[in-house]
Amino acid sequence: MQPDAAPFVLGRIDRLAVRLCLDLGDRAGAEDVLAGMPPSGRGRLLLDARLHLAAGRTADAARALAEVTPALTTRRLAVEHGVVRVLALGAARSEEAPKALASLLELAEPVRFVRTIVAAGPPMWALLEALPAHGRMAAYVARLLDAARRVVPPQVVSGQAGIAEALTERERTVLRYLASRLDTSGIAAEMYLSANTVRSHVKSIYRKLGVSSRAEAVARGRHLGMLGGPSGRRV
Predict the structure, then answer these.
(1) What is the pLDDT of residue 210?
(2) Are the CB atoms for 69 and 84 separated by under 8 Å?
(3) Average of per-residue pLDDT values in the chain
(4) What is the pLDDT of residues 194-229, one digit of tens each?
(5) Would the CA dihedral through 87, 48, 159, 168 be positive or negative?
(6) CA 56, 141, 178: angle at the middle one, nearest 5?
(7) Residue finishing a domain among 151, 177, 199
(8) Does position 77 have pLDDT exceeding 90, yes or no?
(9) Same domain flag for 159 and 133
(10) Predicted structure pTM score
(11) Which of 27, 81, 98, 218 lies 20 to 30 Å (CA to CA) from residue 171?
C-alpha cells in the first residue's frame, strides 16, 4: 500500500489537472477539480482567474487577480500572475495590456521563463508580436515567439457533427498543426510527410469543412470542437 501523498503534492496535482482541463477546453472538468480544492490560496486564486477568463468573465478574473496580488512571494508566482493579468487585459482590449506585458517580460527575462508565457497561447503570442522591443528584450521576445511556433494545440475529444464528411485522424492532426504557427514545410517536417502530401490533406480539410483558407479552417475546426480551447478563442 502506497503512503498518502503530502497535501502540497496533492495540491500541485490538482492545479495541473485544472490547467490541463482548461487547455483542452473542458471548463466543466476544471470546475469539478476546483470544487474539491481549498477555497483560498494563491494557486487556487490564479486558477479561478484563468477559469473566469476561459468563460469570458474578465471582470471576475480581474477581481481574483487583485485578491492574490498581496500574496506574490516568489518570482514564479509573480510571473504566473502577470501572465493571467496580461491575458485579462488583452481579452478586455485594454490599452494597458502592452504595458502589463512589458512589465511581465522585465520580471521573467532574467530567469528565462519560456513555457509559462508561451503556454498562454495565441492571445499572448499576438501581444508579443505587437510589442515594441529592443536589445535583450527583443532577443527574449524572439525566443518566446520561436518557441510558440513549435506549439501544436492539444487534441480534444469531440464529435464531427455539422460537416458532411468526417475528417480522418491524419487530417485532424494536420488541422491542429494549421492552428499552430508552422508553415507547410514545417508541418511536413513535424509529421514526416512530404509538403505535397500535407497540401493534399489541407485541400481535403478545406473541402470537408467547407472553407477556402487556413484561417477559416482553424475557426471552423474550433467551432466544431476539434481544437483545444473554448469556442471563439484562438488556439
Answers:
(1) 84
(2) no
(3) 81
(4) 999 999 999 999 988 888 888 888 888 887 778 754
(5) positive
(6) 60
(7) 151
(8) no
(9) no
(10) 0.59
(11) 27
Higher pLDDT, 229 or 161: 161
Question: Residue 112: which domain range?
Answer: 75-151
Cell of 118: 508561451
User: 19 CB contacts (<8 Å, ≥6 apart)?
Assistant: 47, 50
Cβ atoms of 107 and 77 within 8 Å: the answer is: no
For cell 490599452, what's the residue?
Answer: 95
Yes or no: say if 204 and 166 are a contact pair by the CB < 8 Å rule.
no
We report the CATH number of the domain holding residue 200 as 1.10.10.10
Q: Which of 99, 126, 151 is the last residue of a domain?
A: 151
Q: How many domains does the chain have?
A: 3
Task: Give pLDDT, residue 3.
Answer: 46
51-65 pLDDT, tens digit per residue, is: 888 888 888 888 888
> Locate cell 490560496: which residue?
41
Q: Residue 4 carries which DSSP code?
A: P
Is the domain of 218 the same as that of 160? Answer: yes
